[in-house]
Amino acid sequence: MIAIVIVSHSKQLALGVRELAAQMVQNQVPIAVAAGIEDPENPLGTDPIQVYEAIASVFSDDGVLVLMDLGSALLSAEMAIEFLPEAQQEKVYLCEAPLVEGAIAAVVAAAAGRDIHQVMAEARGALLAKATQLGVVSRPLSVVSPITTNVESPTREIRLIVSNRLGLHARPAAQFVATAARFESQILVRNLTRNTELVRGDSINQVTTLGVRQGHELLITATGSDADEALEALQGLFTNNFGEDNVALNSPPVFHHEATPTTYGELSGIAASPGVAIAPVVHYQSTHITITEYHVDDPNVEWQRLQTAINTARQEIQAVFSQASLQIGDAEAAIFDAQLLFLEDPVLLSAAHQRILDNHINAEAAWQAVVDEIATSYRALEDSYLQERVDDVVDVGQRVLRLLAGNAPVNLHLESPAILVATDLTPSDTAGLDPTKVLGICTTLGSATSHSAIIARTLGIPAVLGVDAQVLHLADGTLMALDGESGRAWVEPESDILDLLAAKQEAWQTAQQEARATAHQPAITRDGRQVSVFANIGSINDVQVAVASGAEGVGLLRTEFLYLDRTSAPTEEEQLLVYQAIAQVLDNRPLIIRTLDVGGDKPLPYLRVGLPEANPFLGSRGIRFCLARPELFKTQLRAILRASVGHQIKIMLPMIATVTEVRAAKVILGEVQAELNQAGIAFDAAMKVGIMVEVPSAVAIADRLAAEVDFFSIGTNDLSQYVMASDRTNPSVANLVDALHPAILRMVQQTVQAAHAAGISVGLCGELAADTLATPILLGLGLDELSVNPQSIPGVKQAIARFSIVESEAIVASALQQDSAEHVRELISTSITPPA
To answer: Which of 95, 442, 626, 765 is catalytic?
Structure first.
């Protein structure tokens, strides 16, 4: 298979491109990265040796395509090829295609089995889709071989309506192309709604240029011996919405635009964050920096000024990111991760640099010009969701301008609780709000899908956006009431309105308090059985959220975060500090640390893993990966053992398939313990060792494995895929990967029975644990512990308290006799009885 190498001055940019490209093809194509240099002060740059190593790590006789950004990246790539043997040099191709779009087009073509010249053609034509949608070109151009028809084979056709919310954007388009490429028949597609020409269905660039949005009708034709099968497979993608969730489609934000207010002082807007707030208003105005362009004699001084401001802005955003992770969780805080990438965009930096040098203008003017260009390009997009990302561009742009101007950041300090009234709030503004002081938000701009609205919802601050601008003329201290659920606000509300809202507010606050109180209490069934509820975490920040959410411990610490996004494995001391920090936050609650779970599907670029695996999910991953690298494994075990002193730490081994693997891991653990004893280093000699049960063979020999370890944890995510022989990222079979399928439930039952017969505990840490519909099933199967994402803990605890073990066991008995996951779900829905 063709391999791809991404060469960039920015490591974060390259890693982001690789992650995006890999997702397009479910990691089927080998992709290596050579980016940045090992200089903390000036990390932007390229290294020929690093490029050489990247090419060598993925080299394929089918060919290697190297994509580069500007400047020295090209020189480094050319030099790197000279280090290769002559026989390999002629199979490495440098390609001038755009880095991001080119990488996506190239991996899709490579995954479809194209040869190196076709992959290069797809990469070179990658900007065509964007140009077509922006009106730069009027129709799709041919970037691969022209359309031909086979007159001997019948042509079949279907017409389909696109229902997934964002249409055929990058990932669905990649799925469409990958599916079309699997068949011998020639697949052609036309967007009937836009009256486009027919294009090849196996070309990512041509499919993307169709500009397919939700509600558009497509004509798809197939000519060839397997035409019917091809169309059936493609239709399956549409039926399954390309595996995307359409919740937002079914529940769009509600806009209220009554011509005449129903009560005096009523304002109508957009319901952006639920809840009721009643408080005096306080106006907030972000300081908008205005700049003046002027001539400079020394452009290098201006460039240095801009670099200094950008570096400071990066530090500020990283601080915001860290604080936001604690307050709103890593997933929502990733908004600021994207802002960091914006600051490290080499194209943007190069454009600003060029403006300063060519025009001899000040840094502020150059920076503002390039930011304005990017903001304009976002506003010109047809996609409303992408249009709203301009807020982040402006947010970052203004931060850098503020630093260039030497202004201190504007922090909102409220003496007493209030409702914030503003024209708009940036994501940074919103993330810094204190929910105990800012009781509500009312703005004249904004939307329910903006990043600011998302953050407000996560913080639990009621918000009504898009109200009439008259609200900006209210005096500070004016009493306001707002209902974030209905999208309405009242200025100096009448007593009857106040009474209604106060009652709704009290009910809402009571429900929130009950949920929080329940979260910090043990989860006990109606007939008195206690079930431990732990958290799955993947970072230090996660553990803070977990404890605040009521976690009784950590049932799964994914240690991969320590190994990713770096050029070498973490040292023993680095790992020790992290494990100790997490254990300290848990304050003697249990901490189960899963040893490194990487391999073919989650590669570490700095570790040579041999040839690319045709099926990485059945390859060298989890415990197999670690046993093949005993020194790497020993380093992690030493750090875990040293951290165990004074804490409840346990070790968990992933992807166990045989008894031999467990014994081999225990031998290495014993060697590490002996080394620590000899060195006089303390550790918990009684520390428990458990395994993940996520491979069918582990279920089959669960009784033998139970004799070797202290506990089991069932990973239903992987177990479901392996039992059903289905990839949950493949839309055509994803519906089979349902952990409530009776086949998987029987596997769970068998594992629990074997564990309990051996006198060891058994938990479950897959996504099924967080599905409250499944709670009675899991209780009835006899699980001792459930481990879920921190945000799900309160709901899971409340669900456990609603059931008894007796009724749960009855539901399980019937569920195991069903013939599908759908029937199991129907059974649960009809069997649940309200508490007495």
So the answer is: 765
Q: For 165, which DSSP code?
A: T
What is the spatial distance between Cα 450 and Cα 429, in angstroms, rounded to a whole number?
A: 13
Give the tokens for residue 507. 């009910």
pLDDT at site 687: 96
Per the CB < 8 A criterion, the answer to whether 713 and 693 are in contact is: yes
Q: Which of 9, 451, 647, 741 is labelled catalytic?
A: 451
Max Cα–Cα distance, the chain, nearest Å: 86
3-state secondary structure of 421: strand
Place of tokens 């570790």: 607
Each residue of 759-779: pLDDT tens digit?
A: 999 999 987 898 889 999 999
Determine the pLDDT at residue 324.
65
Spell out the residues 6+ positions from residue 682 whose beta carbon is closer than 8 angstroms to its own. 642, 645, 676
In this structure, what are the phi and psi dihedrals at residue 612, rounded to the nearest 5 degrees? -55, 140
Residue 757, H or E segment: helix 742-757
Report the alpha-carbon distance of residue 62 to residue 54 in Å, rounded: 16
Main-chain phi, psi angles of 215, to 5 degrees: 90, -10
> Which is more confidently placed, 564 or 673?
673
Q: 823 an active-site residue?
A: no
Would the CA dihedral through 463, 464, 465, 468 be positive or negative? negative
Two tokens, residue 416: 């007493």
* Terminal alpha carbon distance of the chain: 62
User: Are 456 and 426 within 8 A, CB to CB?
Assistant: no
Confidence of residue 387 (pLDDT cuts 50, 70, 90): low
- Strand-pairing partners, residue 556, are 536
Place of tokens 């755009």: 98
Pairing mode, if any, of strands 155-161 and 217-223?
antiparallel
Secondary structure element (H or E) that encloses residue 593, with its range:
strand 591-594
One-letter-per-residue 3-state SS of 254-310: CECCCCCCCCCCEEECEEEECCEEEEEEEECCCCCCCCCCCECCCHHHHHHHHHHHH
Angle at 225 between CA 222 and CA 229, to 5 degrees: 60
Neighbours of 190 (CB within 10 A): 19
Could you report the per-residue pLDDT of 86-105, keeping only the tens digit for each? 888 889 999 888 888 889 88
* Residue 272: closest CA among 51, 22, 444, 21: 444
* Amino acid symbol at 663: R
State whether the Cα torsion 744-749-751-752 is positive or negative. positive
Strands 92-95, 64-68: parallel, antiparallel or unpaired by DSSP?
parallel
Tell me the CB-side half-sphere exposure of residue 589, using CA atoms within 13 A: 21
The C-alpha atoms of residue 750 and residue 704 are separated, in whole angstroms, by 13
Backbone CA torsion sign across 6, 10, 16, 19: positive
Distance of CA 74 to the CA centre of its chain: 31
**Helix axis angle, 451-459 relative to 299-328, nearest 10°?**
40
Contact 294, 493 (CB under 8 A): no
E-strand ranges in 69-208 read: 92-95, 155-161, 186-191, 199-200
On whether the CB atoms of residues 466 and 445 are closer than 8 A, the answer is yes
Main-chain dihedrals φ then ψ at residue 801, nearest 5 degrees: -70, -15
Distance CA 401, CA 371 (A): 11
Global pTM reads 0.49
Is residue 442 flagged as an active site residue? no
Extract the tokens encoding 32.
Answer: 């290596």
The structure tokens listed for 407 are 């202004």
Closest CA to 700 of 738, 753, 758: 753
Burial pattern 816-829, b for ≥16 Cβ within 10 A else e, equals bebeebebbbebbe
Measured torsion, CA atoms of residues 478, 483, 486, 488, in degrees rounded to the nearest 10: 0
The residue count of the chain comes to 836
